[in-house]
Design a protein that fits this description.
20 helices, alpha/beta, ABC transporter transmembrane region fold, 4-stranded antiparallel sheet, 15 strands, Rossmann fold
Length: about 600
């Protein structure tokens, strides 16, 4: 978070959330009115104590006292009822606002470019939906109606104190000024530290999430002690930030209460002296003392709510930081006509058939401007061709795949799909004509059928089973107790790595796109399963343009073209026999004279 964003004023932050307040403004105004009436009921009850004492208690009028007590009960019941109604309305309004905020946040995070997720941990992203949303929810639920009621009670009591006795009230005004200074000064300091607390909490949650997901790796390499040390560092940072935040915020309550007690003590002494000297009647003093207490207690509640409010503002500011991130841009105008399986050109209205032809022409790319990963890459993949990329780790193989999908945009050169610059295509339509199988598979919570159908939501159950048979996943699926209805959780932990990869390949098969990308797709499959898979893969790849990345060179022997990459450049190209006969880089890799690293 930048320094300027941390220094945003509270009003500026609240202004940004106007879209969530506006649809509920009627109910929010109603909450203010009901909370105000509840506060006014307490004020009215306190003021009635003056005539009750002077007119009924001191003269001994029992009947009048009974009537007055009955009236007080009615007034206080009205206050309780309106307070209950306002709190119930606020609960429902809060949930509507939080639901809308969470939906918009999820939609915005989903629209961010892949580079954002590459540079931010899962735990940090998750903290926006948990810690930050929770603090906003608590602030709205608790603070809005209570702060409104406390505000009205404090200033209503102040007005009534002026009505009852002006000299005594001037001292109360001095106490009010002291309270306002304490609240403002500590609130300003607390806001800064609450923001740091949210940031460190996000970092700690991200670390914990990584450690839980990597338990096997942690235990295999005996890194428990190291991770515990790192955890203590994160935990200590959170402790310091939380201590500072709560130190300043916790000062407010006791100081406001102390100021209130000073005010009350002075009022009792001064008021008692005035009663003795017949400058003030007993009923007025009793009523005035109640208002002094009503003035102090809500003021203390007000400071407690400010702590919650400040925490909520810190969470709101962090979420605004996410909303300020630019979405993945899509300036493309060429769309896919699924009825005719062709690209619709926006100006000429011509249709270009979808064939799966991919070309790179002098493509240069780097993840940042300081380092170029790919240097003037040119390649041509005809429809139905199988193109294989081989080379050492970091040579740029996966980067090429990322560029075909437009996960990143190139610095120079052009990439075309069916002769159309992919920058001119709608990203969603471009990606619907590609299927990607990664080395690290990801399975969602749901049945096996649902996970395979993720590649094509319109696929029938028979389409799903056909895709599973093509990838040779059908045999192991049928052996499961629930078959295709088996539930998968925690990224498919109840399956082996090979089985998960077979499901990922089946997902790509059911999508049935013109271009298929396999990034180490068979890395987690044993040799026996790989041989079985080849038959299904041949069927999946039939009439498709296929890009393959593989360290196991035996899997690319039948590729039409093999491209050997080194440090972002194509060093050799040709089929297996041609490259072997050249006895160059590929020959060294294939024969083991040089190792893939």
């Amino acid at each position: 978070m930048t320094k300027s964003s941390r220094q945003k004023s509270m009003m500026a932050i609240l202004k940004r959330y106007e879209a969530y307040f506006k649809p509920n403004r009627f109910f929010l105004i109603l909450v203010v009115i009901l909370s105000g009436i509840s506060g006014l009921a307490g004020i009215a009850g306190s003021y009635l104590l003056r005539p009750i004492i002077n007119r009924y208690i001191l003269p001994g009028d029992v009947r009048g006292l009974k009537m007055s007590v009955a009236a007080l009960i009615v007034i206080y019941l009205i206050g309780v009822l309106f307070n209950f109604i306002s709190s119930q309305i606020m609960v429902r309004v809060t949930q509507k606002m939080i639901t809308a905020l969470r939906k918009d946040l999820f939609g915005h995070v989903n629209s961010l470019p892949l580079s954002y997720f590459d540079s931010n941990s899962d735990g940090n992203v998750m903290s926006y939906f948990t810690n930050d949303i929770d603090t906003i929810e608590n602030a709205l639920n608790t603070c809005f109606s209570l702060m409104t009621q406390s505000f009205i009670t404090v200033f209503g009591s102040l007005i009534m104190m002026f009505v009852l006795n002006i000299p005594l009230t001037f001292f109360t005004l001095v106490c009010l000024g002291a309270m306002v200074f304490v609240i403002y000064d500590n609130g300003k300091r607390s806001k800064k530290y609450y923001g740091r607390r949210q940031t460190f909490m996000a970092a700690l949650n991200g670390f914990i999430r990584e450690m839980i997901e990597g338990q096997k790796v942690e235990k295999v390499f005996g890194r428990e002690a190291v991770n515990l040390k790192n955890f203590r560092t994160y935990n200590e940072e959170l402790r310091v930030a939380s201590t500072n935040a709560f130190t300043y915020s916790s000062i407010m309550g006791p100081m406001v209460v102390s100021i209130g007690f000073m005010n009350y003590t002075f009022t009792v002494c001064a008021g008692g002296f005035m009663v003795i000297k017949n400058l003030l009647d007993l009923g007025t003093l009793a009523s005035y003392l109640i208002f002094v207490r009503q003035f102090s207690v809500p003021a203390n509640q007000f400071t407690q709510q400010i702590n919650l409010f400040l925490a909520g503002m810190a969470g709101a500011e962090r979420i605004l930081h996410v909303f300020d991130l630019e979405k993945e841009t899509d300036e493309g105008k060429v769309v896919l006509s699924r009825e005719s399986s062709a690209w619709e050109m926006p100006e000429s209205k011509n249709l270009v058939p979808v064939r799966g032809e991919v070309t790179f022409h002098d493509v240069a790319f780097g993840y940042d401007s300081s380092k170029t990963i790919l240097k003037k890459i040119s390649l041509y993949a005809k429809p139905g061709q199988k193109i294989a990329f081989v080379g050492a780790t970091g040579a740029g193989k996966t980067t090429i795949i990322n560029l075909i999908n437009r996960f990143y945009d190139i610095q120079s050169g052009t990439i075309t799909y069916d002769g159309i610059n992919i920058k001119d295509m709608k990203k969603k339509d471009l990606r619907s004509c590609l299927a990607l199988v990664l080395q690290d598979t990801h399975l969602f919570t749901g049945t096996i059928t649902e996970n395979i159908r993720y590649g094509n939501l319109q696929a029938t159950d028979e389409d799903v089973r056909k895709a599973a048979r093509l990838s040779n996943a059908d045999s192991f699926i049928r052996r499961l107790p629930m078959g295709y209805d088996t539930m998968l959780k925690n990224d498919g932990d109840n399956l082996s790595l090979g089985q998960r990869q077979l499901l990922a390949i089946a997902r790509a098969a059911v999508a049935n796109p013109p271009v298929l990308i396999l990034d180490e797709a068979t890395s987690s499959i044993d040799t026996r399963t790989e041989k079985l898979l080849e038959q299904g893969m041949d069927a999946i790849m039939e009439n498709k343009t296929v890009f393959v990345i593989a360290h196991r060179l035996s899997t690319v022997r039948n590729a039409d073209v093999i491209l050997v990459l080194d440090q972002g450049e194509i060093m050799e190209r040709g089929n297996h026999e041609e490259l072997i006969s050249k006895k160059g880089r590929y020959y060294e890799l294939y024969t083991g004279a040089k190792q893939l690293t």
